[in-house]
Amino acid sequence: MKSSSLIALWFFVSTAGLVTTSCQPDADVLPTKEVPGTQLPNNFPAPVYGLEKNPPMQAAFELGRALFYDPQLSRTGTVSCGSCHQQASAFANAGHRMSEGIDSRLGTRNVPALQNLRWKLNFFWDGGPKNIETMPLAPITNPLEMDETLDNVLRKLNANANYQRRFAQVFGGSSPIDSYQFLRALAQFTAALTSSNSRYDHYARHEAGGVLTGAELRGLAVLRQKCTNCHAGDLFTDESFRNNGLDRHFPLDSGRAHITRSRLDAGRFKVPSLRNVALTAPYMHDGRFNTLTEVLDHYDHGMVESATLDPQLRRSGPGPGISLSAEERQNLLAFLATLTDEQFTNNSQLAE
Ligand code: HEC
Ligand code: HEC
User: How distant is the alpha carbon of residue 249 from its chain centre?
Assistant: First the structure.
């Protein structure tokens, strides 16, 4: 019933648009628009933050987008979430080892891509924040990032007639905007950042045109043989914390141990997804590698021993690592490029 009346409305609106050619279609009225990420990709597992937890709604999603791109969330009104998380690089910060936050203060870790957050058990390189709704409190209050308090953010939102109207439209009522409403609205946007339309996805879902070249398929075979114990499944991460042999000691950043305080976790970091990896250089938690070629060099011959090095990376031979021939590397690079999702990076609904 509901969908047939929607179709009728769509038909009415679109024909009306055809006759009155001078009239610009009003984006808010067209019922064809769907909140991005509402269709869960059938090559992905069940999400952690299911659609029912915060049902996608256009007005709420657009409010979340406005918040994501609003520098008023920072103390000085100069830094938004989108300052560090840029759509063109899958919401990473391409070209920056560390990112500039407030007053040009430099952060301590490389900005990860924001994608498929619905599927994450926890967030950050160390898995500290566990909840997609409350995690924005970390960057908002971080003195190197936005350096603001939740109270001040709410004060600014409540002083803004436009936000008052939009929050009332989404949450009803006339009470002031509160932290629950603010965090729920922001999560409408972050949860919508689904990247699932790369060439690899079309191949994996046997969709029309979903064809990979010989080199790409050979790269996929190498990946499955040598990498997917960690970069697992169609999310290309098993969400575990591992030490992949970057350092002998971890004086600056102990990784997962920062949260667990366990020596056994020192130097372990969240296995990042490989989706859109061709767009997100530089690489690793500290952005130490500028190219994927450098990353593959690291796996083949750059690794160092340490107490928590992942046992899978020990090998008989010159030292720890994963041996990759020149041809395997070339094929891997070809395959990794198929994980680029241009629909995601060009989706105007996700843009500022
Ligand atoms: C100054 C740059 C900066 C700003 C501003 C910023 N972030 Fe981030 N973001 C980062 C960095 C760096 C990390 C990685 C932090 C870590 O691992 O400790 C990160 C991590 C994240 C993650 C975790 C991704 C994952 O896969 O684990 C999410 C989600 C996120 N940010 C959302 C936001 C939101 C929402 C805002 C705005 C409220 C925001 N960020 C503002 C730099 C920034
Ligand atoms: C033992 C688990 C493990 C295996 C096996 C593994 N990786 Fe990783 N990979 C990781 C971890 C952990 C990180 C992040 C390390 C850090 O930043 O401290 C990572 C990071 C990366 C990155 C950087 C991504 C980014 O966004 O910064 C790339 C690219 C990568 N791996 C590719 C590969 C390839 C290709 C293979 C197979 C040749 C492979 N990995 C095998 C655990 C693994």
Answer: 29
pLDDT, one tens digit per residue, over 174-186 is 789 999 999 999 9
Cβ atoms 37, 194 nearer than 8 A:
yes
Per the listing, tokens 């720890």 go with: 320
Q: Which of 91, 96, 132 has its CA nearest to residue 275?
A: 91
290-293: long-range contacts at Cβ-Cβ below 8 A with a sequence spacing of 24 or more? 292/333, 292/336, 293/329, 293/333
How far does residue 144's CA lie from ligand 2's centre (Å)?
27
- Give tens-digit pLDDT for 2-24: 444 444 444 333 333 333 333 44
Report the distance separating Cα 292 and Cα 67, nearest Å.
33
Radius of gyration of the chain (CA): 22
**Which are the contacts of 315, defined by CB distance < 8 A and separation ≥ 6?**
321, 322, 323
Following CA atoms 37, 118, 48, 287 in sequence, which dihedral angle do they give, to the nearest 10 degrees? 150
Residue type, position 134, single letter = T
- For ligand 2, is residue 295 a contact (CB within 6 Å)? yes
Say how many Å lie between the CA of residue 81 and the centre of ligand 2: 26
**Cα-Cα-Cα-Cα dihedral sign, residues 194, 188, 79, 98:** negative
CA angle 121/124/130 to nearest 5° reads 40
**Are 139 and 282 in contact, with CB atoms under 8 Å apart?**
no
